[in-house]
Amino acid sequence: MTALGFTVKSGWARSVLLAGPPNAPRVVDSLRVELSDPSKPESRQPYHDGFGTARAAGDELTQLVDSAVRFGRRSVMNLIEQYKKEGHQVAGIGLVVGSLVDPERLGNSHVRIHALEGQLFRGIVVDGAVQSSLAYTIWRERDLYPDAITRLKRSNTELRRALTQLGLPLAASWRAEHKVAALAAWLVLSG
Fold first, then answer.
1. b/e map 122-143, b = 16+ CB within 10 Å
2. What is 132-177 written as a DSSP string?
């Protein structure tokens, strides 16, 4: 059994595929997944129109968002399909995001822009999961460790040590974004 974790960023996500029993998971793969079309660099931050300025509603914004949705959904679905072809039984997906705040409730326009992009790219990964018939769970990053400590019955120190150990086969490329994606996958593996 495997589970796939994603740390969602603006225009991309870090994915980590974990396998094994919940008490001894191991990393199978870790990739950067593009969620925006590289041929349209503005689709990485479609709601931005320059530093701190919101892009006006209209055709350009619609085209950029649509481009990101099409490209990102295909990226996520292709990744899941590839894992299935390799024989991995993916139990589900765990997503880690910075915020779940409704962008319309935010007064600061620059913060609202970031929230809109967070909502967009989170939605792209969710849509890829749904289209691939996989269950998903979303965690805010600040809630992930407290939830994991409770559900995995490990102290904060034990959990952080275990996450560091998980990344040893990947050596220098194991950073915070990898660890939280792995932890989300681990929680999915744990049920």
1. bebbbbbbeebebebbbbebee
2. TT--EEEEEHHHHHHHHHHHHT--HHHHHHHHHHHTGGGGGG--HH
Strand partners, 3: 18
Tell me, yes or no, if the pTM score tops 0.85: yes
3-state secondary structure of 88: coil
For 26-43, the pLDDT digits (tens) are 999 999 999 999 999 998
CA torsion, points 137, 139, 144, 148, in degrees to nearest 10? -20
Domains of the chain: 2-189 (3.30.420.10)
Closest CA to 137 of 97, 89, 167, 85: 97
Write out pLDDT tens, residues 64-103. Answer: 999 999 999 999 999 999 999 999 999 999 999 988 888 8
DSSP labels, 3-60:
EEEEEE-SSEEEEEEEES-TTS-EEEEEEEEE-S-TTSGGGGSTTBSSTT-BPPSSHH
